[in-house]
Structures
1.
Amino acid sequence: MRSKSRELIVIQSAYTYETLLKQGLLDFATSKNLNGYFARVITVHPAATLEHEINDRNRYGKLLVIQHSESFLFIEAKVGRFWHLRRFPIINFIISQIELILHLIRFSFCKSDILIRGEDPRYNGALAFILSRLNGLPLILGTWGNPDRIRKFLGKPLLPRIFGNVKLEESCERFLLKRADYVFVQNQDNWDYAVSYGADEKNIRLFRLGNAIHQSHFLAPEHRNFESRLFPLIAHQGFKICTISRLEKLKLVDHALKSFSLMKSASKSHLYIFGDGSEKGKLLELARDLGIDDRVHLLGNVNQDVLAQLLPKMDLVLAPLIGRALTEVALAARAIVAYNVDCHPEIVKHKFTGILVKYEDIIEMASAGDFLLDNFNEAQVMGSNARRFALEFMNPEKLIREQKENYNEIFEHTLWNRLKK
């Protein structure tokens, strides 16, 4: 099948187009064309205005279709279709989603060279299921985390506005994973979760996302030009410690603050937190309660070029649960202390590329952080090892080859099934 005809529809709710631009994260979407393997990638957000206030007119309206380039299209549905139906949010949302589905059917109907991928086995996956069945296409689901662990921590569904309780959300995941023709996972933890919810192991494929990392992070730390305008952000005496995360409860950013406060070197160190989210106010309050507010600096969301310049200036990274950013700090050759959970063990090899500590053990994280600061030469060796390992493990060219092989298999399987009919 010629690359000029292949298309991929990706249904996701992680980022809006505006956020991708502001944070320098366009690689999140553009990397999915695999250097031209797909002629066009259509990135779909089914509820792009969810964070807007109920009485904000921008929350409602028609689909937003953004032609970023010939190869990349972004489609964003709003939470409600009509302003005057804002007092009937469920009806308004359903109308908006029907419009989205009809629009996507027009893109995909009767095409043999298009694939549809839902980026979770919940709402995004449900939309992918509807479209794939209507078009006779394989159902492809991405499973990039372990919802069971998150639900246990939060005590509620990941999508409480859609699924009223945990059991309903879990039932949706089981329904979709049992019917998925292909399940993409990025690590063994994700694999185990998918199997436990009914996915057939022969349908699961490792699909690491290193090719979605911004290219600035692959530059050697010594070759990253540090802009003088950034110096005031980190112009503090002493050790520089950081964490990178969305400021949400499930990301355990408070564990980084608590561990930092327990470190014996805390009095001569500063903690920098990259990221933003709903927990910002609570984290600032926690820093005051712990007596470290003068040494905690919330830098918010910074774009990837800025992050790539700042990371090599850090002496230590605390990683309670930082996901993809773990690859970025490894590429910056930083010393890392990480909880032994999710994707962390794949990058952090204990005492070789960093230190792994027991999940949710705040005291052990603090102790390991002190060890690395007290043994700085050893920490630098671990950081260098982390960069070398990440360069190989997340090598974009290698990952693109692997992902192309997965898609070739899917296209061949789809064509064979159609020929049989």
Note: The chain has two domains: 3-213+396-420, 215-393.
2.
Amino acid sequence: MQQLDNFQIEKLLGEGSFGQVYLTTRKGDSKKYATKKLDRKTIDSSDARKYLENEIKVLQYLNHPNIVKFIDLKKTTNHYYIMMEYANGGELSKNLEKYMDKYNKAFSEEIVQYLMRQIIDAFKYIHGRKIIHRDVKLDNILLHYENEEDKKNLNIMKAQVKIIDFGFACMIGPNGLKYTALGSPINMDPLILKKLTSQNKKVRQLGYNEKADIWSLGTICYEMLIGKSAFNAEDMTELVEKVENGSYSIPTNISYEMASFLNGMLQYSADKRLTASQLSRHTFLTKNVNQFKKIDLKQISNEKKSGMIIVNSKDTDTFMKNKSIWSIFDKDAETILTGILPGQFVNNIDDKEDIEIKKGIKESRVELTINNTIPDNPTDTKVTGMTKDELDNVQKGAEANNVKEVNYTFNGNIFDAI
């Protein structure tokens, strides 16, 4: 065991490309923490340092129950030690895999609703603070169970969501647009995917905003419900073709509310996607699942194959005869929360709170400006020949952020000041 000031490194939890993650305790504290031990030479000589520094800057600015907290950063001659809040359930992707192995099916609408309530609330908060995550995927969402019994039994309905990996995150600029092609291709906004793979200069110069996160949220929601990607592909070329085609399939026994919720996120055109705030008021999140209505297949105008309905992300109005799926969502409706457990939602950000937040940022020592986040300079990367196994590793240094997060007051350069 290793001692770092008042932190005790207990046991190895796992390993990544840039280091190891250890279970950690702190003197006089009953809580458990996760500490990532990173090789300084490797980090300092690569883009990983830029992403790591960016993540810590963003995390100390955020404070939400569904965003994993950063605790401390320490350094020795050879290593950086990043202390984070510990989430005992691990990645949501692994929990889904275990659930499917155990029950031979993906999550029910009730479980998806439970998880998406927390995830959407976190992103309403993140976007409300003018931040884009840019790498939303199941691997970057952790679960924390209150006890080992719930964890062992995969009692997902008792787990708390923790969003991680803010290394690619950025502040929304003055013009509201960003230009760097970052993220995991399988969950990537169609525009960013096109920027990543296209050699067309005009395409590369196109900008995107926080709605890029919304598309990614749609892909993870679909994966939780179906058990596979909406645009499942064996390589980058096939992925681009499927996303550009725009078609994905949903089960015929899905509810109207679930279909509408997915449709609100998986819109090819960003301006047609619902915002995180709008999604938080969607009936899929605000009604009890037992109040949902099953789709009347006689009313479906879309093509149906093998128990699945074909939906096209480029055409909003072709789902139901004489009625758009959008009609299920009332953008002006009040949020009516029924049967929701404490902690699943945080109060809405109102004008007064927004003013207080901005005042607090201005008066604090934290300086999270456009200039000290990740430079928005895309580098040319030709990745169309990559295999499925390589899709999540397109961006150099992406694995460097696979740590967890914290209230941390920082003044100056985090790596030089410690």
Note: DSSP finds 13 helices and 14 strands in the chain.
3.
Amino acid sequence: MIGMKIGIIGTRGFPGVQGGIETHCLELYSRIAKNEDVNITVYRRTPYLNDLNKKAEFRNIRFVDIPVPKSKNFETLLHSFLATVHALFQGFDIVHYHNTGPGFFMPLLRITRARLFFTYHNVSYSQKKWSRFAKWFLNTSERVSMTNADYVIFISEIIRSEMLSKYRIGNHCVIANGVNIPVKSEKSDFIGSLGLQKERYILAIGRFLEEKGFDYLIRAFVKADLKDYKLVIAGDTDYPTEYSDNLKALAGENGVILTGFITGEKLNQVFTWAGLYVMSSFEEGLPIALLEAMSYDIKALASDIPANLQVELDSDDYFRVGDEDDLKNKILVKINSGKKNNFSEILKQRFNWDKIAFDTYNTYKL
């Protein structure tokens, strides 16, 4: 049975590719693909594939890998165009675009019978990393996506409210990001190889972008002067930038441990034994990394941006965004606090990937 043919455009790819949208697509489509009446095609970018994930197979999912150069300003543009052109001839029932950049070419598929879906993950054109052309392109892509999609999915109420104030949107809903409740690691060999002690390090995770605020996190950590704690930042940059180069230099000068992009058991260990998780972002959609930290019941601190506030941590779990002195003070309070967290029920009810996949699958069948 061929079933419902669905094309996915907008992710770099999965599995084993860093990024919130990549995690979202991995968790979502590996579940939707379990339905026998679907046949899913995911368009990936070859620069993010290796010998391990290039051969990955998922039930009812096929991958179309498109070679594009790694480029901050043109990679998404080129990949989205080539993927859309390929999709024109596949007889898809649904083509689902993820985030605004890829949606720029959505109108080309109007000549097909495909219903067009669009998930809005974050408002990206305000990010500092983009050139003037890139910001124009993302702004235009937002308008194109909003006005051409047959169905829009927002990952948060905050984004929906902002977009409804700008556009007349027809069929739409909010379906949040999710998180898996993990089996915590019993091993510590990886953190030991980094010179870390259990619960004696502060953890942050993400790509090396200005919006993540890792630079002021490092300065706040240095000001806290915690002799028996270390700061660990797990992640890397997709392509070198002045910011990422300066961040790595700042980390090196202050003894911050950079793990690079890690997955699997290494990431499990880093989460399991962390004494505190900090999300210092200036901008997020709905932060998967924060949800992942919560799934390990780690003490957490998050910047008080709307995206983080919607997770509804306790008031003392937030600090003023960009304020390294406030962050320093909150770090000292948290480190010395005996408070224990248990977020499992909140996560199961509000950020459950099985329910998210079920809800998304049902929107396809409307």
Note: The chain has a mean pLDDT of 92.
